[in-house]
Write a structure and sequence with these properties.
This protein is mainly α and about 575 residues long. Helix content is about 60%, strand content about 5%. The protein has helices spanning about 25-40, 65-90, 95-100, 100-105, 125-130, 135-140, 145-150, 155-185, 190-195, 200-205, 215-250, 275-285, 300-325, 350-370, 390-395, 425-445, 450-460, 460-465, 470-480, 480-490, 495-505, 510-550, 560-569, and strands at about 260-265, 290-300, 335, 345, 375-385, 405-410. The relative contact order is 0.10.
C-alpha cells in the first residue's frame, strides 16, 4: 500500500501492523468514539466490517493555523483598506455633498469647491487633513446620543450601537473562554494518547483534546449556559434602549401627513356612486368624529412620466445655471439629440427653460384628462384623519364583515409609495404570494446546485490533486478565502431576484419591499450558505468514495468540514 507522507492535518494507521488502539478492545472503542465525537472525515474504503481493525487510513481535514491566519489577514486587510478609502474620499471637495448632505439641507455648510483652483476644487491638497483623517471615529463615539441623532439621524445611532453591542457581547465571552475553556482544553491529553497522530498546538486548544467521558466537559456545558444567558440579557437590554429611543424620536419629530393617513384598498364598486363619493360616504358613517378628507388613486402613468421628465429638465437647468454663474464669460450650450450626443447645438439655459414650459402645459392637460376620466380611478384611496388615534384605529381594525374589501393599512410616506401595487385585488394578491412562496422554495433548493459545484471546486483536496505544485501560502489562501469569495460572486444576483419576487407579491411601499426582501435573503443565506456550502462540499467527496468502493466493504461516515465552514463565514 502506497501512502503519502503525513502532513500537519493528516494521520493514518497502516495495515502492516495493528494500531495500538486495535490491540486492546477498550482502547479501540474509545478511539472510535473519539472520531465520532470530533465528527472528522473518515474516508475508509480500507475499513472492513470483519477485520476487527481500525481503518487502515484516516484522513483528517482541518483548518491549520496558517489557514486561519491567512483568512484573518485577508479579511482584516480588506476592511482596513475600505476604511482608509472612505476616510480619504470624504475629505475630497468633489464628494462633500455626498458625505454631508444634511449639513447642506440645514444650510450650515457651503460647497468647498467654490473659489478654488482647477485642481483644489476636486482634490484636497491640505496635508494636515490627511494626518488626522481618522479623527472622526473617536469624535463620533464620544458624541452624546441625542446630539448624534440630531446630527446624523436615528439610523446612524442604531448602526453604531450594533457594533458596540457586538463588543459588549463577545469581549466578555472571549475573556471567559481564554481564562476557563482554553486551559481546560490545553491541559487535556486526548491527542497525546493517540499514537501516529500529527497535530499542532492549536489543535490542543479545541474540545478535541478532552478525553471521552471526562469531567472537563462540565466546564463547556456551564460556559455554554453562561454565554447564552449573557447574550440574551444584552439583546434584551439593547432592544429596550432602542425602543425607548425610537419612541422619543417619533414623539419629538415633526408631524407628517402619513402619520394621520390610512391607505384603503379593494374599495367595492357601487353602481350609484363613484369611488370618491363612496369612500367619503363610508368613512363619514363609520368614522364620523375622526374622518377629515380623502384622495382617490388614479391610473396616471403618462402623467407620472411627464412629471419625471420635467424634474430631469429642471435638474439640467439648475446645473447649467450654476455653471454659467461660475463662468459668466461662456454661455453653456447643449445638443438637442439623444443624451446630448448629437443634434443641433443650442443655448442650454434657453433650451431647458422652453422644455420645462412645454412639459408644464402637457402636464396640466394630462392632469385634467385623468381627473375627468372615470375609468382612470382605481379602487384605492388615501384617507386622512383628524388625530393619530383615529388613523391608528382605522389602520388596525377590520372595516367590513367581508374581509376581502375595505382593506386598510398605515399609509406610507409619499416618496415611499410603490404605486404599481395599489390596485391588486385581494384574491389575486393571495395567489401571487402563494406562487412566490413556491418559487422561493425552488430558488433556495435549486440554488444549492451552483453552491455545491463551487464548494466542490474550492475543496482543497481536489485542488491539490489537480495542482500539486501549490505552495503552502496559496493553499492557505484557497482554504480560508476562496470558498467565501466564490460564494459572494454566486450571490450577487440573488437580492435583485428576491426584490422582483417581493414586488410581484404586491407590497405597497418601497420600505416594505426592502423588509420582505431582507427576510427572504436571510432565510436564503441560512439555508444555502450556512447549511448548503458546509454539507455539499463534503457530499461530493462521499458520493465519489461510495461509487468507487467495493461492494463487500462499507464506510463509517462521520463528517464535518471545519474548512468549508470557515470559507462560508
Amino acid at each position: 500500500m502506497t501512502s503519502h507522507s503525513p502532513t500537519p492535518s493528516t494521520f493514518r494507521f497502516t495495515a502492516s501492523s495493528p494500531s495500538p488502539a486495535a490491540a486492546h478492545p477498550r482502547r479501540r472503542l474509545a478511539h472510535r468514539s473519539y472520531l465520532h465525537r470530533l465528527r472528522w472525515l473518515s474516508p475508509s474504503p480500507n475499513y472492513t466490517a470483519n477485520s476487527g481493525l481500525l481503518p487502515r487510513r484516516v484522513d483528517i481535514i482541518m483548518a491549520s493555523l496558517q489557514d486561519i491566519v491567512v483568512s484573518a489577514a485577508v479579511n482584516l486587510g480588506s476592511a482596513l483598506a475600505f476604511l482608509i478609502a472612505f476616510a480619504i474620499l470624504r475629505l475630497q471637495p468633489v464628494n462633500d455633498r455626498v458625505y454631508f448632505p444634511k449639513w447642506y439641507l440645514k444650510g450650515i455648510r457651503g460647497s468647498p469647491s467654490h473659489s478654488r483652483g482647477p485642481v483644489t476644487k476636486f482634490v484636497n491638497l491640505d496635508w494636515r487633513m490627511y494626518i488626522r483623517f481618522l479623527n472622526w471615529m473617536p469624535q463620533a463615539l464620544r458624541m452624546p446620543e441625542p446630539e448624534l441623532v440630531e446630527h446624523a439621524g436615528l439610523d446612524s445611532v442604531a448602526y453604531i450601537r450594533i457594533y458596540l453591542l457586538g463588543l459588549k457581547i463577545f469581549v466578555p465571552i472571549a475573556v471567559l473562554a481564554f481564562i476557563i475553556l482554553v486551559p481546560v482544553n490545553f491541559t487535556g491529553d486526548m491527542l497525546d494518547r493517540i499514537e501516529d497522530l500529527t497535530y499542532s498546538n492549536i489543535d490542543k486548544l479545541s474540545i478535541s483534546n478532552i478525553p471521552h467521558g471526562s469531567n472537563r466537559f462540565w466546564a463547556h456545558i456551564v460556559m455554554a449556559y453562561v454565554f447564552t444567558f449573557w447574550t440574551f440579557y444584552m439583546l434584551h437590554k439593547e432592544y429596550r434602549n432602542i425602543m425607548t429611543m425610537r419612541l422619543e424620536f417619533l414623539a419629538n419629530a415633526d408631524r407628517r401627513p402619513d402619520q394621520f393617513s390610512v391607505l384603503v384598498r379593494n374599495v367595492p364598486l357601487d353602481p350609484d356612486e363613484s369611488v370618491s363619493d363612496y369612500v367619503e360616504h363610508f368613512f363619514r358613517v363609520n368614522h364620523p368624529d375622526h374622518y377629515l378628507l380623502h384622495r382617490v388613486v388614479y391610473n396616471a402613468n403618462k402623467l407620472a412620466k411627464l412629471v419625471d421628465e420635467k424634474k430631469r429638465s429642471k435638474n439640467w437647468l439648475t446645473y447649467y445655471e450654476n455653471k454659467y454663474e461660475r463662468y459668466p464669460a461662456i454661455r453653456p450650450t447643449t445638443k438637442t439629440g439623444f443624451c446630448g450626443l448629437w443634434g443641433a447645438r443650442v443655448d442650454a439655459i434657453d433650451y431647458y427653460t422652453s422644455e420645462i414650459q412645454k412639459l408644464s402645459e402637457q402636464e396640466l392637460a394630462e392632469r385634467e384628462r385623468v381627473e375627468c376620466d372615470p375609468k382612470a380611478i382605481l379602487p384605492a384611496a388615501f384617507v386622512s384623519f383628524r388625530s393619530r388615534w383615529g388613523a391608528a384605529v382605522c389602520a388596525q381594525t377590520q372595516q367590513s364583515s367581508d374581509p376581502t374589501i375595505w382593506l386598510t393599512e398605515w399609509a406610507p410616506e409619499p416618496t415611499d409609495v410603490y404605486w404599481a401595487n395599489l390596485a391588486i385585488p385581494y384574491v389575486e394578491l393571495n395567489i401571487r404570494r402563494l406562487l412566490m412562496a413556491v418559487a422561493f422554495f425552488f430558488l433556495v433548493f435549486f440554488f444549492m446546485v451552483p453552491i455545491a459545484f463551487v464548494q466542490s471546486i474550492a475543496n482543497i483536496d481536489g485542488i491539490q490533486r489537480a495542482f500539486p505544485f501549490l505552495k503552502k501560502f496559496v493553499k492557505a489562501f484557497i482554504q480560508g478565502v476562496l470558498p467565501g469569495l466564490l460564494l459572494k460572486i454566486c450571490l450577487l444576483l440573488v437580492p435583485l431576484v428576491l426584490m422582483t419576487m417581493s414586488k410581484i407579491e404586491g407590497f405597497t411601499s418601497f420600505s416594505s419591499l426592502e423588509r420582505r426582501t431582507a427576510r427572504k435573503y436571510h432565510l436564503f443565506i441560512l439555508v444555502n450558505v450556512f447549511l448548503g456550502s458546509i454539507i455539499t462540499g463534503t457530499a461530493f467527496q462521499q458520493l465519489y468514495k461510495l461509487l468507487h468502493q467495493s461492494a463487500t466493504e462499507y464506510q463509517y461516515i462521520s463528517v464535518c468540514k471545519p474548512a468549508q465552514k470557515q470559507g462560508a463565514h
